[in-house]
Amino acid sequence: MIKPDAVANGHTGAILDDIIKGGFKIVALKYTSLSSAKAGEFYAVHAERPFYNDLVGFMSSGPIVAAILEKDNAIEDFRTLIGATDPSKADAGTIRNKYAKSIDANAIHGSDSDENAQIEGNFFFSAFERF
Ligand code: CMP
Question: Does 4-129 carry CATH code 3.40.50.720?
């Protein structure tokens, strides 16, 4: 998911280009937004964390781009492509290093396991929206 900061700052095209050049196939793609209820549901796993309310507020503050991506070793390779959660710790050339400003406004979210990728893909897309 390309987060509201990166969409608002005009980085959607550059980020999709990095993703495609990184060898990921786009299976599904959607420009949409999350209500605070839907953002809360998406990040329910973090409900007990101190940053949860700020995260939900931020993620519902503007449009996002959701995608399902496919690649061998996709979870690990995508995490390498996007860099550390805290952009100040993200390696040079990573998406968060190039486009993110803070740990909340960190430009992009990637699933942390194949299981969560299934859940998160189902959150945004029906079977008819995948190619
Ligand atoms: P994301 O990969 O979308 O998953 C949860 C998000 O919570 C994370 O990126 C950050 O944007 C946000 N967040 C804010 N504070 C923290 C923190 N201390 N540790 C981890 N994630 C945080």
Answer: no
